[in-house]
Predict the structure.
Amino acid sequence: MNILLNILWIVLGGLLIFLEYLVASLILMITIIGIPFGLQTLKLALVALVPFGREIRSTPSDGGCLSVLMNVIWILVGGIGICLSHLVLGAVLCITIIGIPFGLQHFKLAQLALVPFGKEVI
């Protein structure tokens, strides 16, 4: 079932979201300072390509204070905008019964888009 839902996700807009995240990741990786943020955007891109069957977990204090600092910078620079766009798309998709699974995936992406540092995708 996850394979079918992932194929529908890709056809109905998931590929566009993946490409947006991929381009943003490559742009962020131009500078040395942007490399950690580019890697997190790449993580978002991979989840955005095939979100069904993936789970987001918090890593047990791998980053510590640095992870918190990077999340604060991420939120101030662009994380809120990305999160809000996923929340709006999720709410719009949840209006119909058919769109509910896709809306829930946008809510999962919103959670990861708000604070990506210190999270892992399984």
Q: What stands out?
A: Residues 2-121 form one domain. The chain has a mean pLDDT of 92. DSSP finds four helices and two strands in the chain. The longest strand covers residues 56-58.
